[in-house]
Amino acid sequence: MVTLYSTPLSANGRKALAVSLHLRIDPKVVVVNVYKGEGRANDYLTVNPQGKVPSLVDGSLMLWESNAILQYLAEAYGGYKLWSQDEKRRADLSRWLFWESSHWQPVLTNVMRPVVAQKLGLAPASPRAQADWTDAQFRSVAELLDIQLSDRPFIGGLELTIADFSIAGMMTYARACDFPFQTYPNIAKWYARIEALPAWQKTATMPWSGSDPA
């Protein structure tokens, strides 16, 4: 029995849950609300010493880092659906997994942190926090992603992959943070496709809501 420790409140947690649902994997899901300190419980720290989500336990394997979990689920339980058995294709998709963790996620974390913290009750409710979408680093990564999506429906081309779920993770907060979809039309169209996925819809949760990306 695979056990997935996660929460849809978290961008990284949500993408692991969504991939599990999309692949019709039936793991035991243990909700760990890291925003209430549940990640620091002694029992959970034996699973993930960083106290973060998601984490996956499969027999003797204790796996953390969300993108590694997505890859493992696709290979071990998804029959390589959302992934590939071709080494060149895997390398191409891996490039975007690494980009997500080293560029996209850190930049969006910095830009959206004030709003996310306020929505989760981790910062004073007033004045109303705003994300700084004029940030130069954000504009750089968003422009790159928008160009990548200019001639294809998904990150890797015509087919949905774990690269899409990986990069979509941080978009969990996009509506609440008034993401500038109008400036990045290809990102807007791509994220609309992600939001149409039943697995993404099933993992949607408050307080992450807002206007349509159009």
Report on the structure:
- The structure is a single chain.
- The protein is an alpha+beta fold and 214 residues long.
- 45% of the residues lie in helices and 7% in strands.
- It has a four-stranded mixed beta sheet with strand order 2-1-3-4, covered by helices on one side.
- A hairpin with a 2-residue loop joins β3 and β4.
- The radius of gyration is 17 Å and the shape is globular.
- The termini are far apart.
Helices and strands, with pairings:
Elements: E1 3-6, H1 11-22, E2 28-31, H2 42-45, E3 55-58, E4 61-64, H3 66-76, H4 87-119, H5 136-148, H6 162-168, H7 185-195, H8 198-202
Parallel strand pairs: 1-2
Antiparallel strand pairs: 1-3, 3-4
Helix pairs in contact: 1-3, 1-6, 4-5, 4-6
List keywords for this structure.
214 residues, alpha+beta, four-stranded mixed β-sheet, 8 helices, 7% strand
Task: Summarize this structure briefly.
With 214 residues, the chain is α+β, with helices and mostly antiparallel strands. The protein has eight helices and four strands; from the N terminus they run E-H-E-H-E-E-H-H-H-H-H-H.
